[in-house]
Amino acid sequence: MTTLTITTTDVDGARIEARQPSVVRDVVAIAGRALRALPQEMETVIPLIFIALFFFIVNIGTLQHLTQSHIRGFDIKAFMLPTAILIGVTGVSRAGSLVLDIQDGYLDRLLLTPVRRLAILVGHMVADVAIAALLTVPILVLAFAIGVHIQAGLLGAVAFVVMACLWSLAFAGFGYAIALKTGNPAAVNSSFLLFFPFLFMTSSYVPRNQLTGWLSTIAGWNPVTYILEGLRSLVTQGWRWESLGKALLAIGIVGVLSMSLSLAALRGRTRRG
Amino acid sequence: MIRIPTGARSAERDQTAISAQGLVRSFDGSVAVDQLDLEIHRGEIYGFLGPNGAGKSTTVRVLCTLLSPSGGRAVVAGYDVATHPEQVRLRIGVALQDVALDPKQTGMDLLRLQGRLYGLSRREIAERLGELGRLIDLGDALERPIRTYSGGMKRRLDLATALVHQPEILFLDEPTTGLDPVSRARMWEEVNRLNQELHMTIFLTTQYLEEADELAHRIGIINDGRLVAEGTPDELKHAVGNDLIVARLATTGETAVEAARLRVEAIPGVHGVTARDEELVITTEDGASTIGAVAVALDKIAPVRSLTLRTPTLDDVFLQLTGNHIDLEEVAS
Known about the structure:
The structure holds two protein chains of two kinds.
Chain A: H1 23-36, H2 46-70, H3 76-89, H4 95-104, H5 106-111, H6 117-145, H7 153-182, H8 185-190, H9 195-200, H10 213-221, H11 223-236, H12 241-272
Chain B: E1 2-3, E2 16-27, E3 30-41, E4 45-49, H1 56-63, E5 71-76, E6 79-80, H2 85-91, E7 92-95, H3 107-117, H4 122-136, H5 151-163, E8 169-173, H6 181-198, E9 201-206, H7 209-215, E10 218-223, E11 226-231, H8 233-240, E12 243-249, H9 254-265, E13 270-276, E14 279-284, H10 287-299, E15 304-310, H11 314-322, H12 328-332
């Protein structure tokens, strides 16, 4: 049997005492944990990169001749880059890990510490943004390799990645809301279904003015349409503030909705314990 | 409710670590904790004893701020759990009934993160990890993912996470359930050491009678969400009587058992008789001088299979207060 002595003082003789960390330290601690777990969970990231690259290449191959021969001055590679990026970053979420924390009881362990409840959610989301930013790298590298040029320049490329990450964050809020509300991994996985109407009932494959009928109407209401148009404006036109403003507004509307749902779910879970 | 005054305490011990007045917690109309009153002093090991579903874990979850009270008030380490939960969390450590660990992290990463969340500096965390490493004796395993740990290793690591910040009050919710006898003895030793060397207040829930008897300075017995008795182990046992005579009759007929109960109750020196199936538990001041009269009285009603004289246990206390034994099979499972 081990014998031990637990001392009550640190090396200077002062008693070690817990104290409330800053908000930033809370968020960094939670985000750091989520990012450290990433190498063990590459199966959640690699398919996202693969799917984005796959659709980027296949869509260009499929539509290049058709679109470029019918629409004057149309560059399918530049047009498809935002679609590929959104396919990659939509669905980046640690919500699945949060469900495992609930099931393993580790969320209770976190809730027993002085960490701010909001920091648990924000910490996971900060990790999501970092992962989403990393995901854009191979897609952008491929795009540059096949001759895509971002008209808004280097700063425009940065803005492009930032907007894509903000959208990723806004969409991830739905996954967190479902995770915190249900604590059920199957329910979180089913949030992926939201991906389809958002990403495909819009101008993913052809410009909005080429859409007709009901799809055109739905695309007009789909916030992703405006995000795609904002991102495309950076690639094909440069800084077009109206398009960028609409894109940011669309991200903001979806973000407010998804964050409200996830915060309500967080409050509900911490209240019922 | 039986509440046995425990006499004078030192000034230090009179400081209250945990108190509750009329504490209630219900779930969808079902009351799990019902008008609970508690007063636990600093430096005390308080055993909270009761069967499965009695409300022990719910009480712990309310006191450690994981659940908000439905009614009443609880103050832990000087702060109200409902209005100042963040202050409570800074001062308590908790090891829940089910270990609350992240299987993907290594033990070392988990402890470091725990230190950060309590605002400790790198130097303080390093110092505490050194101390806790010796406490939990996991050696090189601390660098391995937690999913590779045995149940006992997880339990020890869970205790260490509760101790990283040197809490004033430690909540241990059934800390030895599922442990082998050696690990259980080791946990008892650690609990005693934390209390004696660090003067840590320890709120310990358990279903194991011998655990409460061995560790607790005072015991509260909870049944159906209500505190039914409180006192030191000896006081609770003496409240039942100095001696117990347990008689097993060779019949389970209700009429015969009831007749036997009434006959024995009339014997001078008998304080009370509890009947359960074919068993009579007779409380008495002096068992040696009463057992002969009990044997004669019972023999006139029904054949006696066995007659045992012994001192009371906490199970006898529980039996007298609730009419039931703590279900040992349930505990074992």
